[in-house]
Each structure stands twice: as C-alpha cells, then as structure tokens.
Design goal:
Blueprint: H1 2-17, E1 25-29, H2 32-42, E2 46-50, H3 65-72, E3 76-79, H4 89-96, E4 108-110, H5 143-160, H6 165-189, E5 196-198, H7 204-209, E6 214-217, H8 228-237, E7 244-248, H9 254-263, E8 267-270, H10 280-295
Parallel strand pairs: 1-2, 1-3, 3-4, 5-6, 5-7, 7-8
Helix pairs in contact: 2-5, 3-4, 5-6, 6-10
Length: 299
Amino acid sequence: MFKRILATAVLATALAAGPAAAERLQVAATTTNMAMITQQVGGDHVEVTNMAPPDRDAHYLEARPSMMAALRGADLVVSVGAELEEGWLPAAIRGANNPDVQIGQDGYFEAAAQVELIGQTGHADRARGDVHPAGNPHVYLDPVRMAEVGQALASRLGDLAPEHAEHFYSNADDFQAAVEERLPGWEERVADAPGVLVFHADIDYLVHRLDVPLHGYLEPLPGVPPTARHLRRLVNELADERGVTLFADFQPADGARFIERELGWSYYSLPTQVPVDGDADDYFAVIDELVEAIASPAS
C-alpha cells in the first residue's frame, strides 16, 4: 500500500514538473529577448540557455567558452540576426563544433530573417559607420514583429519536435493576441507625442510602429560615439522642436545630458532587454516603460 502511495506521489511530482530535461529541445538564445520569445512559444518542451546578459550591447560581445558550451549541446540556436551578433556568434558556433546549429541548418534561426526590416542599404560601407546591409536588426523592440517572429519560431520548433507542434502554435497565438490587445493602448498613449531623439538606431522599430516623429540620433553614424560638432548641429536643428531623448541602459548619457542643458529635453535611460529568465509580462513592461517615456512631453 505504502509503495502504491509513493509511486503515485512520484508520478504526480513528475507530471507537475513537466517533461524531463532530456526530453526537452535544448535551445541557445543570443539575448534575453530571444530567450523570452523562445520560452514563451516552446513552453515546457524547451530548455533555454541565454548566452548574453541584458545590460550589455550584443554588437560588441566576444565569443566565450560558456557560449560554446551552450551551443555544443543545443538542438537550436535562436539569434536576432541581420549581423547584430556578427562579432561573436559565428566564432562561438565554430568553437562549439555542433553541425546541427551551423548557419543554414534547421537548428539555426534568425528573428530578423522572419520579418520585414527597416533601414536596408544592400551594401556595407564603413564610411557610413557600423551599418547592417541587410537592415536594422533591432526587430525585438517592435511587438508586432516579435509576434511574427513567434509564429515563425513555432514552425521551426514544430519541425524539430512535430509531436508538440500544436502546443507551439497555440503559445505563439497567445503571445500575438496579447500584443494585439495592448497595441491600441500604446498608440493612444503616444498620439500627441512630439517626437524622440535616440542614441542608436535601436528604438526605431517602436517609434515607427507607433508613428512617432524621430528627430535623429546622438550617434553621428551607427557605432560612432557622439561628437561635440554633431551634438551642436542637433541643438541648432531642433531648437524649435519638443521631444525627449531615449537610449538603452548600457549606452552613455553624456550626449543626452548636453541636449537637456541646451534644449531642456528630458532624457531616459531604459532597458531594451527583459531580465534573465524574463517572460512575456517582462517584455510588455519594457515596451510600457518606453511608451511612457515617449509620451512624457505631452503628459
């Protein structure tokens, strides 16, 4: 009798814990936002390892042994793509020596390849700064595009684990429905926003989605730190405008402080990535905070 009770308890515990780790798809995500959407879509059937901290610029990381270890055991790598991780991900994949996650294989997924990109130049010209010829890679700051990425990711996970495909699509649909529910509120909140100045071309996707005027960039060219000459030109050009300055929490504040002194524009240093192990609610909180900052001059 005791053995039967014990066996029942063990079974109940196992069911509550979900699939065993060995039964889950092993996924290596390049950023916490990519880890979030993977966990949201994959649910209990994925084990996600995040390779980069949320407070570091994913442009400028270096390949590390921990990244190679995550990639070595992965069934799938989920990256932002459009060359955002060009400086470290290809080297980490080579070091991992895992044929399943090589570029071009089913185990390699780029979010940027699933949606229409803004800022496509079609050519790399370093005279124009640290440009991405395929387009602006920061698609994760447009919730609508993230929902499209979720749908594409459900399809890829379904290819790797067909028995759970329905579960993946259902989770992607839930995320998309949550975005569609929130989008009118975000649009209404910034309807009278006079515009924003950003440090880098990363918050562009949210600004474009919400149809808010973009007044320019603190960087004179992508990847080039703000210069006194460029900041003075911005002050002259924006003397008759109103707005705010936004930048990611890992970007320097000196340029924004200068704009505040000269034009009286408030500035906001905000997260653009969810915390480690962040979920969909954390992602929507990131968007909510950016929206409130954009709306602040009109409040």
